[in-house]
Specification:
The protein has 13 helices and 9 strands. It has about 375 residues and is α+β, with helices and mostly antiparallel strands. α11 crosses α12.
């Protein structure tokens, strides 16, 4: 079990939130005294109990819980669990164990930045994995919604992904059901084509890679998985920013495209804009359009509109995709016009219906 899984299980058992923090080594020496290198031996700082779970020459990773939230027996249990798990997170003799410990360390730093008001972008020097983050990588974010299914073990997932991509892969545990995957950019070299449409071709390749990862994992584990993919980056410079982007893309994908599992940031420009609008302004917009939101409660109408917009408002292609006669599709569009006063075959009206549909999905999700 890795430290992320252990932290979440402790939270469920004791019923309080466990937060992560990093304390400078010199400060920790002052606080812990002779016990400054004992895994799990806690100290109290300003009403917060801190348990160390890993050390470096410059800092200490700790878990924190307010002292009023625990009984003494629960505190002793956490200490025991950390000491028992110490060998799993302490750098060991082999390169494999060293890499896993370093990636757990990076994941802890990344979680702290994602929760910070002013996150850092450049990875600090004291993280020993930094030297492997200077080359361009393709980032994937994998999210599992299998809260009641058996958990995916880090070691098994890492082995599976390396069998697919090769050795140039780093698997960073972000949360209990969330992993950041960094794959060497050379994975794209054999697929790239130099042409005027190279940017679009690369985006298509990234989508195909995401689909490949999804199918690989779906064949091994039962459950619901989502993957977002971004364009190549230098991780040591923009890891926090791209992880935030991929998280937001997953949120938008689950909200606006519920039937899909591969979500690409460049497919959600309009959705991102709608999602950023404050709730009050959303409601005002919907009220002023005078479009009856009830039309979106009809599965047939909803499917028709989504397919029509997905296929660039092409009537013939939409009819083919829906396996209906063209005249049947035109009848449905006329029915929408009667109920809303808007003809989706008109560009202006189509834009308005599309925006209202997106707003409806945001409202329904909330």
């Amino acid at each position: 079990m890795n430290m992320i899984d252990l932290r979440h299980r402790i939270e469920r058992i004791v019923g309080v939130s466990v937060t992560e923090n990093t304390i400078d080594w010199s400060r920790w020496q002052e606080l812990a005294g002779n016990n400054n290198r004992q895994i799990g031996t806690s100290v109290i700082v300003d009403g917060v109990r801190c348990w160390p779970w890993s050390y470096s020459e410059e800092y200490v990773n700790v878990w924190e819980i307010e002292t009023g939230g625990l009984q003494d027996s629960e505190s002793e249990l956490i200490e025991l669990l950390l000491q028992t798990a110490a060998n799993q997170v302490r750098p060991a003799a082999s390169d494999k164990d060293n890499e896993e410990a370093a990636l757990l360390e990076l994941g802890a730093w990344l979680r702290g930045q994602l929760n910070a008001e002013t996150p850092e972008e450049v990875i600090p020097e004291h993280l020993i994995i930094k030297k492997r983050l200077a080359a361009a990588c393709v980032p994937f974010l994998l999210s599992s919604e299998n809260r009641t299914k058996p958990q995916i073990q880090y070691q098994k997932l890492n082995k599976l992904l390396k069998s697919y991509f090769g050795a140039e892969l780093l698997l960073i545990p972000v949360e209990e059901h969330e992993w950041l995957i960094l794959v060497g950019e050379n994975q794209l070299e054999d697929l790239r084509q130099v042409s005027e449409e190279s940017s679009e071709a690369e985006r298509t390749m990234l989508g195909d890679l995401g689909q490949g990862v999804y199918e690989l994992i779906a064949n091994e584990w039962v459950g619901n998985f989502h993957i977002s993919v971004a364009q190549p980056l230098i991780p040591e410079r923009t890891l926090t920013e791209v992880t935030q982007l991929l998280r937001e893309t997953l949120t938008l994908g689950k909200m606006f495209r519920v039937s899909e599992h591969i979500h690409l940031p460049w497919n959600f420009y309009l959705e991102r804009l709608v999602y950023s609008i404050p709730d009050k302004q959303r409601k005002q917009f919907v009220a002023r359009t005078e479009i009856g939101m009830t039309i979106f409660n009809d599965p047939e109408t909803l499917s028709t509109l989504e397919t029509f917009f997905q296929l660039d408002c092409n009537v013939s292609e939409t009819a083919k995709r829906l396996y209906i006669h063209r005249n049947t599709l035109l009848y449905r569009m006329d029915k929408i016009k009667q109920e809303t006063g808007l003809d989706v075959r008109s560009f202006k009206d189509a834009v308005l219906v599309k925006l209202t549909l997106l707003l409806y999905k945001v409202t329904k999700r909330k």
